[in-house]
Amino acid sequence: MNVQTKSFQNKLFIGGEFVDGDAGGTIEVLNPHDNSPITEVAEAREADVDRAVTAAAEAFPAWRRMAAMDRGRLLLKLADAVEANADELTRLESIDTGHPLRDTRFLDVPRTAVTYRYFGGMADKFEGSVVPVEEGFLNYLLREPVGVVGQIVPWNFPLMFTSWKMGPALAAGNCVVLKPAELTPLSTLRIAELMREVGFPPGVVNIVPGYGPIAGQRLADHPDIHKLAFTGSTAVGRKIVESSAGNLKKLQLELGGKGANIIFEDANIPAAVGGSAFAIFHNQGQACIAGSRLILHEAIADEFLDKFIGLAKSIRLGDPLDENTEMGPLTSKMHQERVLKYCEVAKEEGGEILTGGKLPDDPALEKGCYIEPTVVRAKPSDRVCQEEVFGPFVSVTTFRDEEEVMEIANGTEYGLAGGLWTRDLQRAHRVAAQLISGMVWINCYKRVNPGSPFGGVRSSGYGREMGFDAMREYTQTKSVWVNVDAQIPPYYKR
Ligand code: NAP
Ligand code: MG
Question: 0.85 cut: is pTM over it?
Answer without folding.
Answer: yes
